[in-house]
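Tutorial, part two.
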Amino acid sequence: MHAFAAAHRDGGVVVDVREPHEYESGHVPGATLMPMAAVRARLRELPRSRPVYVICASGNRSLTAAAQMASAGIEAWSVAGGTSAWAAAGGPLVTHAARSGQESGARR
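Running the prediction step on this input gives:
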């Protein structure tokens, strides 16, 4: 988690592969939502010039997505422990209001 935290602080690319309702309930600030089912179709959106950190709830889906990205030539890293580990380590989470889609702020 320390390596991911450092990369995040430095502006690393973070892709959250959970479902929209999971993302809205709390995600890493700056993370882009790209549900697992959409990863293959959206690979061209990802940079090839810098690492991509892939996160889910616990690390299982992100392993699969990172492997798909790597097979397309993207330097992808699965965040071990996922959003749960990030939050447990004191990382901030951003939530969205369910109806408005408005960001409601970071929480710890």
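The chain has a mean pLDDT of 91. In part three we will examine how such features are distributed along the chain.
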